[in-house]
Amino acid sequence: MDDDRRGDNRVQYTRPSSAPGRSLVEPSSEPRLRIAILAPPWIPVPPPGYGGIEFVVALLCDALVDLNHDVELFCAPGSRSRATVHPLLDEPHPESIERALFEADHVSRAFHAIETAARNGSPFDVVHDHCGYTPLAMADRIDIPLVHTVHGPFDHETKPYYAVHGHNASVVCISRAQAAMAPTPEIVDDVVYNPIDIDDWPVGWAKDDYLLWVGRFVAEKGPQRAIRVAKAVGRRLILAGVVQPRHERFFAEEIQPHIDGEQIVYVGEVGGVRKQRLFADAYAFLMPIRWPEPFGMVMVEAMAGGTPVLAFPEGAAVEVVEDGVSGFLVADEDEMAARVPDAGRLDPLQIRRSAERFAPDRIAAGYEQAYRAAALRSARA
Ligand code: UDP
Questions:
Q1: Mean pLDDT for the chain?
Q2: Ligand 1 atom having least distance to the Cα of 293
Q3: Domains and CATH numbers, the chain
């Protein structure tokens, strides 16, 4: 068993100049923190359907409240949380993801509220930013330490941004694979995985016969490859997810022509209990990715439902899938098809247990340590 599976969910990521972190599962005896969580403006927390970041924020807020911290959530309207909720804009903007008009407006309102709290004598100890690119770029303009979670990959577009702004604040990655792609290692302060509360997810003991793919319909996530695998093994494939702006053509050309409502079934965007049952009842979940997946929530959601994951060994898949226990890491479509019969022999209970590493209390403890370290660094500076 490697270090990640011993119950410490703050990955033992060692910065070049520091020692590995201590175990975080014991309760902290340090003072409670006043934490501002900054969610994106696009989708409410928790999300009604698609929304990986918003799921993470929802679980993290509740877990931090359970750890007795004072948590305020700045977010899209329609959000619910055990933290104090502050919707900032008049409506969510799921059709305008990454549009600067809404991000700038949302972030500037959040910064205004955070500074007003300080002026009124109740300053936050830390701001935890999950919101695109604006807060990190501006983090050295506010007096409160900021922790930024990198939710996307470090690629040719984002690396120059992080090379310049990564030093403004504490940067947390969501997998070792993602951290390894940072423009320079010293901008990454910590690695903390994304959370899932497996107790909220039903286990599928009696599996159905279908293969499942869930996500954004983009080439790198591989729905077109999932279709080829399903056809090769002659099994039903259920596809669920969203077609985001700029990806309509990919869907129309690579996916739509194969949907026949029998072998290849498209059920649109799913959420809530329906999504959970889709995961739990699937014979296996397909993850034929060709990109450096930063984390891949859909893999742990399948695991929570006791469903094996067949994944290409890209990005965080090698950290999330326990080869031979919660699924199989396979090199290509042919090997994925060949492994389909073996997936049915894996034990749903073991698969689900493999997701216990991502329990929200462990993730929150990891972030708590990141917040305290950020506050300390800021005080020293
Ligand atoms: N999702 C959903 N409904 C859909 C498609 C996706 O709720 O129709 C959720 C999915 O369950 C997961 C998230 O959206 O929680 C996607 O996160 P992931 O890390 O897998 O991928 P990302 O899109 O963030 O790269």
A1: 92
A2: 25
A3: 29-195+359-376 (3.40.50.2000), 202-358 (3.40.50.2000)
Residues 6+ apart with CB under 8 A from 380: none
**In whole angstroms, what is the distance from residue 236 CA to residue 355 CA?**
26
**Nearby residues of 62 by Cβ (< 8 Å), 6 or more positions away:** 81, 82, 83, 360
Which pair of structure tokens corresponds to residue 234? 């002659």
Q: How far apart are CA 330 and CA 222, in angstroms?
A: 14
Structure letter (DSSP) for residue 221: G
Instruction: Tell me the two tokens of residue 313.
Output: 């060994």
Phi/psi of residue 81, each to 5°?
A: -165, 160
Q: State pTM to two decimals.
A: 0.90
pLDDT tens per residue, range 5-53: 333 444 433 333 333 233 344 556 788 999 999 999 999 999 998 899 9
Residue count of the chain: 381
> Measured on CA atoms in the order 273, 278, 279, 283, is the torsion positive or negative?
positive
Burial of 152 (0-12, 13-18, 19+ CB in 10 A): middle
Helix/strand/coil (H/E/C) assignment for every residue in 303-332: HHCCCCEEECCCCCHHHHCCECCCEEECCC
pLDDT digits (tens, 9 = 90+) for 8-21: 444 433 333 333 23
Q: Are 200 and 63 in contact (CB under 8 A)?
A: no
Report residue 152 CA to chain centroid gap: 9
By alpha-carbon position, which residue is closest to atom 25 of ligand 1? 296
Q: How far is the CA of 72 from the centre of ligand 1 (A)?
A: 24
Convert the pLDDT of each residue in 183-233 to its tens digit.
999 999 999 999 999 999 999 999 999 999 999 999 999 999 999 999 999
Q: How far apart are the CA of 297 and the centre of ligand 1, in A?
A: 6
Residues 6 or more apart whose Cβ sits within 8 Å of residue 235 = 209, 210, 211, 263, 283, 340
Q: Which residues contact 373 (CB under 8 A, 6 or more apart)?
A: 170, 189, 190
**Å from CA of 27 to ligand 1 middle:** 31
